[in-house]
Amino acid sequence: MNVTSLFSFTSPAVKRLLGWKQGDEEEKWAEKAVDALVKKLKKKKGAMEELERALSCPGQPSNCVTIPRSLDGRLQVSHRKGLPHVIYCRVWRWPDLQSHHELKALECCEYPFGSKQKDVCINPYHYKRVDSPVLPPVLVPRNSEFNAKHSMLPRFRNPLHQNEPHMPQNATFPESFSQTHSPGGNSYPGSPGSGSSATFPHSPTSSDPGSPFQMPETPPPAYLPPEERMTQDCPQPMDTNLMVPALPLEISNRPDVQPVAYEEPKHWCSIVYYELNNRVGEAFQANSTSVLVDGFTDPSNNRNRFCLGLLSNVNRNSTIENTRRHIGKGVHLYYVGGEVYAECLSDSSIFVQSRNCNYHHGFHPTTVCKIPSGCSLKIFNNQEFAELLAQSVNHGFEAVYELTKMCTIRMSFVKGWGAEYHRQDVTSTPCWIEIHLHGPLQWLDKVLTQMGSPHNPISSVS
Fold this sequence. Notes:
The protein is of the alpha+beta class. It folds into two domains: 11-129, SMAD MH1 domain (Smad3, Chain A); 138-451, Tumour Suppressor Smad4. The chain contains 13 helices and 21 strands. The chain has helices spanning 3-7, 12-18, 27-41, 47-56, 84-92, 144-151, 204-207, 249-252, 318-325, 355-361, 382-392, 397-402, 438-451, and strands spanning 66-68, 75-77, 80-82, 103-105, 119-121, 127-129, 138-141, 170-172, 198-199, 257-260, 269-275, 278-286, 290-294, 305-307, 331-336, 339-344, 350-353, 368-371, 376-381, 408-413, 432-437. A hairpin with a 2-residue loop joins strand 11 (269-275) and strand 12. Helix 2 crosses helix 3 (27-41). One of its GO terms (biological process) is embryonic pattern specification. GO terms for molecular function: DNA-binding transcription factor activity, RNA polymerase II-specific; I-SMAD binding; metal ion binding; RNA polymerase II cis-regulatory region sequence-specific DNA binding.
């Protein structure tokens, strides 16, 4: 018997609670997490009994089990900081849980994490996991004449097909707005020439009480640092067997349309790294719903970590070298509930150009958004993309093809670009990545293939 085991002691209460632990969660860490919880709950009469009742009878109604909320909303367990409801949902329900965005509080919960009360409920059965929405198929007209006629509609205004300014405008997340923009609205931030910047409000989908994502006003940093994330030990693979929704009989029998359904690809995205206008290294294929892009040098080919520090480039200058040193923990990308989020883990800001995000907030399509350290922003929404695609098929090939721009997201580290920066284009920034969203691109490909070819004429000398 070694000295450690001689003096180690696990209380009976902790042992009982560990009996309900799920999966292969790291034993020592889970034990310390439960031990920390027991110490807090013993100070509240009946709290331990209520938690044991909830864990032993998961199908029965149970009361909130609360602990005091810390200043930053997080709980530290053995050198790891995490959101308490996420920690205990991982221990007792979902070992592969990646983020608080995957959880939604039940209506019966009086102290949900998102309510910002002085106490927060950690009862794992007061939260449910957010499911990916089933997207309805796009109905592509079979008659090519129908497409040709509608592609010339002067009233149709594709939200992406704006006159693009010489330099993108800039916005900063999450500072407040004077007004909230609606998706597809015609109002945009100040023109590049005015020197003004616009700031994103909180997304309506995250602040609405009925929303599946109830985020605090200041999104907390990632609940685990990259080098200690348990997501590396148990990454969540993509589910490529999502059920295609059954078509209503009246649609499946319509001879004038061809339904084209969305399917999840094996890799939800690929990421390409650039230095100025030079591509560096191979594309990273993401088959885990949680991906870290950082500046470190892990050579193990971890399938949910893209280490830019490993990549070499003989044309690198001193500005690029210095910028690479400041990437640090980089960005955490995660795909959950049909939405893509970017969380800045770096000490320096990241800068994102996402047309889907800009459309949602009513910004000009090319606006570049600054995400400061510790902040998280939704950068793509499958449902909004599906609605735009369904509308676009009735306006011809060109309108649908224009949506391909929405499926690529550009993101720079440390250095920004646009009207407020001396760099006008992303290819002038030292270190940046391009994210290609495979699901939407694959869906577009199938729709465009069904539609045929564009009807606007083009010649060899045009």
